[in-house]
Amino acid sequence: MGISIASFLLPLALVLNLVSVCNGGTTSAFVRNVQKGVNMSLDSDVFAVPSGYNAPQQVHITQGDLVGKEVIVSWVTEDEPGSIAVRYWSTDNSKQKKLAKGKIVTYRFFNYSSGFIHHTTIRNLEYNTKYYYEVGLGNTTRQFWFITPPEIGPDVPYTFGLIGDLGQSFDSNRTLSHYELNPRKGQTVLFVGDLSYSDNFPNHDNVRWDTWGRFVERSTAYQPWIWTVGNHEIDFAPEIGETKPFKPYSHRYHTPYKASQSTSPFWYSIRRASAHIIVLASYSGYGKYTPQYQWLEQELPKVNRTETPWLIVLMHSPWYNSNNQHYMEGETMRVMYEPWFVKYKVDVVYAGHVHAYERTERVSNIAYNVVNGICTPIKDQSAPVYITIGDGGNLGGMETNMTEPQPEYSAFREASFGHAIFDIKNRTHAHYSWHRNQDGYSVEADSHWFFNRFWHPVDDSTAHVFH
Ligand SMILES: *[C@@H]1O[C@H](CO)[C@@H](O)[C@H](O)[C@H]1NC(C)=O
Ligand SMILES: *[C@@H]1O[C@H](CO)[C@@H](O)[C@H](O)[C@H]1NC(C)=O
Ligand SMILES: *[C@@H]1O[C@H](CO)[C@@H](O)[C@H](O)[C@H]1NC(C)=O
Ligand SMILES: *[C@@H]1O[C@H](CO)[C@@H](O)[C@H](O)[C@H]1NC(C)=O
Ligand SMILES: *[C@@H]1O[C@H](CO)[C@@H](O)[C@H](O)[C@H]1NC(C)=O
Ligand SMILES: *[C@@H]1O[C@H](CO)[C@@H](O)[C@H](O)[C@H]1NC(C)=O
Ligand SMILES: *[C@@H]1O[C@H](CO)[C@@H](O)[C@H](O)[C@H]1NC(C)=O
Ligand SMILES: [Fe+2]
């Protein structure tokens, strides 16, 4: 008979998710396809330009203030500037439609000229309310909606999605689809950097920024994505005369940095529901006396755990990561800021950059001072858990080469594409899960109950014994 053993065993291996236990935590032995990612071609369905004269495209929203009562709506028009207004109304009050007006920016990059990039902030929104909004008034008008967060409070449940290093390959599309269909229903995406990977194309082909904007619109137009800057946003290309870092990114993706007294769009904070979220910039100065250092030094004491128990930090380059790819690239920033993270009891740090998934134990390494030589990560209940979620899809494929043996601080690691969900239940508990693209939508390939470091600082490690 024709049924080969191989065709029988392969699906079995995919289902079983065998794991092997090493010195550290778990290195998953999940069997996957490790081919290089394949770009979605320019004529892909996800890149289709919306029809109609001057139709708004690449619509995306993000939080516009410190507390979640403002939304920045951004979109691009190609034929002419078009209306700068957003019309919006709440479902409770649909007769009273309001207008908010913003501004338009454009930029050139080598021989590319951008469309008209609109940014309009809608203010004074009610909490916990569904709003409809329209852009493209006067020509092709498109309608979307979003739901504002609940008022800030210590026990407000809220669900954040975590996506990093998304790119525009077929894997990227799978990650986004899995996020959208996850029954845990992320309400806001915390995006940890590396958006379009346009810089991988000839002359950083900025057309790929536009295709990326159209690709993610199906999510970014309906829920805020909180942006972190990654190395693929630098777009530094002196060989073609482009010497101003972050030019495409900073024209296209705005952040509410002034609301948290930041002087740069690349580092800032927001408060949303029961979380205080600090976004750091791995590719801007962070040494002592730099603007980012001074800002963070003043920011951390402002976190009020009575109002926002959950302290979350986002950055692109991970501090703790046992993949050989990008190994120790985050080390210099770790040396600068880790003592603060321990002092202020950060609950969790999310990073991207490494195209694989990893979760650590609560660990710190802050004793070292050159003279004493004490440089070993130790178990520390005041320290955050570090999660690397740079497995959104990108273009380069998976990064499977890990340091061996698995370090003790590493609780779980696996080179597969996916996304994660941080599901805050109340001031003491949050349920975290990682979802790999090959699984069903509700499967949790890794999961963890977080106990809040301020309200319930009990040891929440489960994976393995860590000394
Ligand atoms: C930009 O230059 C590249 C390389 O010379 C060329 O292939 C491309 O068509 C040009 N694009 C535009 C918009 O002129
Ligand atoms: C686009 O809208 C403007 C302002 O309403 C109007 O003057 C113009 O005729 C419209 N263009 C087209 C092609 O519909
Ligand atoms: C991307 O995913 C969506 C939703 O699953 C699907 O409809 C679409 O055909 C996919 N496109 C590509 C190019 O994979
Ligand atoms: C995707 O496109 C980039 C830029 O053209 C190229 O370097 C890369 O090889 C492509 N990857 C695949 C798998 O086609
Ligand atoms: C923190 O928030 C609580 C509740 O709103 C308030 O009573 C307290 O004064 C705040 N603490 C600081 C240091 O601002
Ligand atoms: C894995 O990474 C190590 C350290 O960078 C390198 O020496 C080794 O050649 C890599 N192995 C493979 C199979 O790429
Ligand atoms: C907080 O949430 C956890 C998990 O759902 C639950 O077990 C616990 O009882 C909740 N605490 C309170 C005070 O409701
Ligand atoms: Fe990166």
Write a short abstract of this structure.
By secondary structure, this protein is of the alpha+beta class.
Detail the topology: elements first, then pairings:
Blueprint: H1 5-16, E1 19-21, E2 26-28, E3 57-63, E4 71-77, E5 85-90, E6 98-101, E7 103-105, E8 108-109, E9 112-113, E10 116-122, E11 130-135, E12 142-147, E13 158-163, H2 170-181, E14 188-191, H3 207-220, E15 225-227, H4 247-252, E16 268-272, E17 275-279, H5 291-299, E18 310-314, H6 331-343, E19 348-351, E20 357-360, E21 363-364, E22 378-379, E23 385-389, E24 410-414, E25 418-424, E26 429-436, E27 446-451
Parallel strand pairs: 2-24, 13-14, 14-15, 17-18, 18-19, 19-23
Antiparallel strand pairs: 1-2, 3-4, 4-10, 5-6, 5-11, 7-10, 8-9, 11-12, 13-25, 16-17, 20-23, 20-24, 21-22, 25-26, 26-27
Bound molecules: 2-acetamido-2-deoxy-beta-D-glucopyranose (NAG) (7 copies) and fe (ii) ion (FE2).
Low-confidence stretches: 1-22
Question: In what order do the strands lie side by side in the largest sheet?
Answer: 1-2-24-20-23-19-18-17-16
Give the full name of the CATH homologous superfamily of the domain at 157-193 and 266-466: Metallo-dependent phosphatases
Approximate helicity band: 10-25%
| Overall SS class | alpha+beta
Distance between the termini: 54 Å
User: Which architecture name of the domain at 157-193 and 266-466 does CATH use?
Assistant: 4-Layer Sandwich
What overall geometry do the principal axes of the alpha carbons give? globular
User: Sheet bearing the most strands, described?
Assistant: 9 strands, mixed
- Oligomeric state of the chains in view: single chain
Number of strands: 27
- Top CATH class of the domain at 157-193 and 266-466: Alpha Beta
**Which topology of the domain at 157-193 and 266-466 does CATH recognise?**
Purple Acid Phosphatase, chain A, domain 2
The small molecules bound here are: 2-acetamido-2-deoxy-beta-D-glucopyranose, fe (ii) ion
Number of helices: 6
Give the C-alpha Rg: 22 Å
Percent of sequence in beta strands: 25-35%
Mean pLDDT: 93
